[in-house]
Amino acid sequence: MPMRPEWSWFSESRFGMFIHWGPYSAWERGEQVLFREHLDQADYSKRACAWSPRAFNAAAWAECAVEAGMRYAVLTTRHHDGFCLWDSAVTDYSSARQAPERDFVREYVEAFRAAGLRVGLYYSLADWRIPAYWDGPEADPKGWERFREYVHAQVRELLSNYGRIDVIWFDGAWPHNAEDWRSLELVDMMRELQPGILINNRLGKVGAKDRVSAGPAGEGTGHSAAMGDFGTPEHHITAETSRLWESCQVTTWRLWGYTRGERWRPADVLLDMLVESASKGGNLLLNVGPTPDGEFPDEFVERMAEIGAWMRIHGEAIYGSEAGEVCEFVTVGRQTRRGNRLYLIIRFWNGTGTLRLAGLATRVLGARLLTTDQPLDFTQTADELVLRGLPADSPTPLFPVIRIECEAAPAAADWAVDRLWSGDPARMTSWARARGTSVWADGVER
Ligand code: GLC
Fold first, then answer.
1. For ligand 1, is residue 107 a contact (CB within 6 Å)?
2. 81 lines ligand 1 (CB under 6 A)
3. What's the CA gap between 356 and 322, in Å, rounded?
4. What per-residue confidence (pLDDT) applies to 221?
5. Which of 125, 168, 256, 259 to mutate to test the pocket of ligand 1 (most atoms within 8 A of CB)?
6. Residues of CATH 2.60.40.1180 domain(s) within the chain?
7. Are 102 and 58 in contact (CB under 8 A)?
8. Which residue's CA is the nearest one to ligand 1's atom 4?
9. Cα of 224 to ligand 1 centre, how many Å?
10. CATH architecture assignment, domain 324-419
11. Residue 441 has pLDDT above 90, yes or no
12. Run of H or E including 379
């Protein structure tokens, strides 16, 4: 998959906001309540049309994203329930033509752009209201064709009427494949309308063999390995090797749309997902489900403020970083890299004042605790780097970061690369042999 220069902002950003919002928020039971609870379709659409969020203020949302250190966002312009958040010419089932009488997509795009953020649009191919979606192209070729044309027309609107769009994020292709959706035609159209756009990998499978190998089994059904500029591992963080990727995650325990009484993950767990994604060379798209009235829940805003405060001090370890599992470090934290710099992002602070890193082969020129901007004393031998003078108490409630300046791009000694899990185990023989060869404590054969 070619990596285009106009996509470099994506890796540079590392951190984005996913926003799941629509009339379903009024049920306060997640974004899939229509289907999950087998609700009456007519009642649902009546109530959806009456949904009228008064507090929605796109500038306030954008401010929260900026405050958190996010660099882009993706908004659900239409979820599986089919309700559109923009003024679509091909349906009246939208926020523009029903109670709110507002084009929420326009407000979002304008406010987020004005705040300096990149803008993405999520669009569900699935529309649970439409019988042809369920019947599929074989059972109902006419109905399917009409529905597919509707989908194509809406994608055209979204990419024609709102200026530059940086990301288009499809979902809900399942159970139909890329051929059913005519996804290749969609891609051609999108590239023509928005030459720089990044298209995700959920436009349906391309051929029987197409599936994403990494990740939980079910994920292969809707995610394509063959089509898509970036991968979208969902609820897990698994690197893709041949294209960009972004892990999408909830801030609560399970649901994407607003859910009354949902539990929230604490700030350190959320930040750890960002750090893990960066350490593996990918992005984190972190979700919020705004309230029915259009505000971000307090729990979300509080957590974003905590993460943002951390990002303002430690952002250089995240933005534009590269995958960084240079040395084995899992017992302490995670690593990222940038040029000759290695960042140690410390998850567990032991308070001993020293930190030992085994196996860094590159000569170290200096080390600094970024959190307090304190230079650190160190000694380095062929096998180990020992950092000294660390404070007893963690200097931040989140993760302290140490920046190590190396003479060249940081690299591990041959024996130290991934030594427990891969590579030739015989690399470790001479290390073991240094003790001796026997089972006895002194290693001597008898
Ligand atoms: C799933 C769900 C959907 C959610 C999406 C986010 O595919 O169907 O509710 O919007 O994941 O990645």
1. no
2. no
3. 22
4. 61
5. 256
6. 324-419
7. no
8. 256
9. 15
10. Sandwich (2.60)
11. yes
12. strand 377-380
Is 430 within 8 Å of 404 (Cβ atoms)? no
- Residue-wise pLDDT tens digits, 224-273: 888 899 999 999 999 998 999 999 999 999 899 999 999 999 999 999 99
Please give the pLDDT value at position 213.
Answer: 44
Name the one residue in this structure whose structure tokens are 């969020």: 53
Q: 128: Cβ below 6 Å to ligand 1?
A: no
Ligand 1 center to 395 CA (angstroms) = 37
CB 162 within 8 A of CB 105: yes
Which of ligand 1's atoms lies nearest the C-alpha of 32?
9
Ligand 1 centroid–CA 2 distance in Å is: 27
The whole-chain average pLDDT of the chain stands at 95
Q: Would the CB of 157 count as within 6 Å of ligand 1?
A: no
Closest CA to 323 of 219, 237, 201, 236: 237
Closest of 226, 227, 155, 164 to residue 186, by C-alpha? 155
CA of 42 to the centre of ligand 1 (A): 23
Say how many Å lie between the CA of residue 171 and the centre of ligand 1: 7
Q: Check if the beta carbon of residue 398 is closer than 8 Å to that of residue 271.
A: yes
Q: What is the pLDDT of residues 25-81, one digit of tens each?
A: 999 999 999 999 999 999 999 999 999 999 999 999 999 999 999 999 999 999 999
Q: Where are the strands (E) in 225-369, listed by range? A: 230-231, 244-249, 283-288, 322-323, 333-338, 341-346, 355-358, 364-369
Reported pTM: 0.95
Q: What CATH code would you report for 5-317? A: 3.20.20.80
- Residue 256 Cα, ligand 1 centroid: separation in angstroms? 7
| Distance of CA 283 from the midpoint of ligand 1 (Å) | 17
Please indicate whether residue 246, judged by its CB atom, sits closer than 6 Å to ligand 1: no
Looking at 51-140, list the stretches that DSSP marks H as alpha helix, in order from N- to C-terminal side: 58-68, 104-114, 131-139
Location of each CATH 3.20.20.80 domain in the chain: 5-317
